[in-house]
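User: Hey, my collaborator sent me this sequence without any context and asked if I could get a structure. I don't really work with proteins. Can you help?
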Amino acid sequence: MRTTQILLRSGLTVAAAAALPLTLAAPSAVAYGSGISVSTTGTNVSVTTSACPSNGSSFGNAALLTSGQANFSQGRQASLTGTSSSQSANWSGVSPGTYTVIVVCANGTTAGTQSIIVSSPTTPKTPKAPTISSTASPSRGVMGGFGGAVRDYGTLTLVGGGALVGAGIVAAAWYLRRRAKPNRL
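Assistant: No problem. I've predicted the 3D structure and written it out in C-alpha cell form, which is a compact way to encode the shape of the chain:
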C-alpha cells in the first residue's frame, strides 16, 4: 500500500513537471508567430518585418484592409522595401478606423497579420482659463475589463491558461482534502 502511494505521488509530480514547460512555452510561440510590427503616427501607418527573404527583385507586399475588406487583394497595397534583415512598407493619409495589416512575402508565405486602430488626429487647442467645479466621485469605483486590448490571443494560449487554472483547482482541492484527513490519500 505504501509503495502505491509513493508511485502515485511521484507520477503526479512528473506529469505536472512535464506539462509546465509546454504550457509556459505556448504563449510565446503564439506571440512570436506574428512576424510583423505595425505602428501608427497620426494618419501614417507603417509595418516592419524581417521574415521576408528577397527573390532577387522584391521582398513582397503588404496590404492595409478595412473592416469591410475580406482578402489581401482588396486592401491598399504597398511594396516592401529595405534590406535582407529588415523590410518595411508605409501608408499615408489613412482615415481613422480599425484596419488589418497583412504582409505576404515574395515567395507566397504570409509573414504576419495584425489589427491596428488609427485614431483621429488631434489639433492643438488654445488654452482656456481653468474653471473650478466640484464633481461627485464615482459610486462604484474603478471599472475594469479588457478595455482597449489590442492583442488577440490565439486558441492555444487560451487552452493553456485554462489548463493552468484547472490544474490549480485540482491541486487546491487535493491539498484541502489531504489536510482534512491526514491518514488518507
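In plain terms: The first strand starts at residue 36 and ends at 41. You can pass these C-alpha cells on to your collaborator as they are.
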